[in-house]
Each structure stands twice: as C-alpha cells, then as structure tokens.
Amino acid sequence: MASTLFALFAFAANSVLCRLALGENTIDAASFTTVRLLSGITILFVIITITSKVNRPNEKVKTKGSWFAAAMLFIYALAFSFGYISLDTGTGALILFGAVQITMIISSVISGNKLHFFEWLGLTVAFTGFVYLIIPSLTTPSLTGFILMSISGIAWAFYTLLGRGSNNPLNDTAYNFLRTSPFVFALIAIVFSVSHIHITPTGIMLAVLSGAIASGIGYFVWYMALAGLSVTQAAVVQLFVPIIAALGGVIFTSEMITLRLIESSALVLGGILMVILGRYYFVELATRKVSNKN
C-alpha cells in the first residue's frame, strides 16, 4: 500500500515539476527530458551499487529490462515534456492517465477479453470526456498538447504492462533508463543542431528532482507495487493521479481548476471506472455461476 501511494504521488509530482519548469520558461522541453532521464540513470545505479554491496555482494544481475520498455519510456518522457509546454498541470495529467487507461483496456480487448455492454458504455463516456475537453476550443488545451500527451499516455501504458512481469523491479527500471541513453544522445545532437537551448539553474534542479526522485525512484517503486496489483487494481489506483496533480497545480503553480476540466474529469474518470467495475462484476458473476454448477 505504501509503495503504491508513493508511486502515485511521484507520478503527480512529475506533472507539477515539469509544468513548473516549462511554464516558468526555466528550461526547454528537450533539455528537461535529457536531464530527467540522465538523473534517473544516475540515481538508480547508485542505489544498485549500494544495495548489491550491502545485501547481495556475490549475486549476478539476472534481469536488465528490455529495449522495447526503454523505447516506451523515452517516448513517454519526450512527449510528456513537449506536451506540457501548452497544458496546465491537471489537464495534462487527465489526458495522460486517461490515455493510459483506455490503452490498457484496448490492449485487454485485443488479447481476447471481450467487453460487455456496460464496459463499452463506460469506454464511450470516457472518450466523450476527451472530446469535450478540447471542443469547442482547440486552444485550451491546445490540440498539439492533447496529441502529445495522449502519445505519452499510450507509451506509459505499454511500459506499465511490461512492468507487471518484472521479477527484479530495481534492475529492470535501472536498465530501462540506461537503455534510453542512445535515444537521449540522439536527442541532444538534434537539439544542438536545429534548436535553441535554454537552461537555467532552476530548470536543471526541477529536471533533476523529476528524474532522480519522481521518475527514477518513483518508477522503481511502481514496478514493485505492480507485483501485488492486478491489472484492474493498477488501472483503478492511477485514476487518482490527475486529482493529485490538479491540486498540486493549484498549490505550486497557482493554476485555476476550470469547470470544463471538472466536467471532463468526471466523464473520463467515471467512464473508465465503469469499464473497470463492469469487468469486475461480469467476471465475478461468471465465476459464481461456474462455482454453483460445480
């Protein structure tokens, strides 16, 4: 329970830190992503070094993440940073985790789990909430920000699904971060050649906090928490992140919670909750019928 709560607050903290950095123009999005991932790599391997000497000096590393997970992590982080250039904290978190849940639901359907009527209804309600968030105005949030944060959410959904099979959360998280290095160096090369670099000490500090604490340690703890959570539980608990992030935006970035955001949040989160509860209800009902027959 404690690890799950820590991970959820870490997710929300990433939204707040990124919005603080980009909203105040203390650092550009590409540099924020770069510092964030490199900080995550550093802190995770410091932890691995310490724990291996203290607890398992002779144990060899058996798991080292995967290139696919690393690619999803990099896409998530990059789209996340550029998406938050034009999105408020709460709006960005709602789009991000709404996209996460919808992707996980679709993945479940593709893998052979059929949706019942109540679940399809919930998915329709959630999608309606997304549409309502950007219509009639495509500037609040911006369409570009919406698309980028949706891509970020899709990538994070795949990263989460991969994490459920992790036998060594610390090593997998650390090596997933390390495997983003080639992508990070390519990003640095592109930015230096075609874009303007803008970095301040405050921006670096916010990126390091996001990378080392909220991302590096946060994602390691999330991989630990996933071992004790079902897919349904993992989906449900993440619904609280947009709420925490929105409150963080009010406290730390002086943002306003608009009526449109509240209404859209109710539709998106309510619709996803309908899908999750609908799946739980029908599975339980089917299980009871089988038990009664036996």
Automatic annotation (TrEMBL):
Lipid bilayer topology: Multi-pass membrane protein
Entry annotated with the keyword Transferase: no
GO CC annotations, alphabetized: membrane
InterPro entries, per the entry: AA-Vitamin_Transporters, EamA_dom, EmrE-like
Keyword entries, A-Z: Membrane, Transmembrane, Transmembrane helix
Lineage top rank: taxon: Bacteria
All residue ranges annotated as the EamA domain in the record: 144-276
Main location group: membrane
Membrane-spanning segments: 34-54, 66-85, 91-110, 117-135, 141-162, 174-197, 203-222, 234-252, 264-283
GTP-binding among keywords: no
Compartmental location: Membrane
SUPFAM superfamilies assigned: Multidrug resistance efflux transporter EmrE (SSF103481)
PANTHER family: AMINO-ACID METABOLITE EFFLUX PUMP-RELATED, INNER MEMBRANE TRANSPORTER
Name the UniProt record assigns to this protein: EamA family transporter
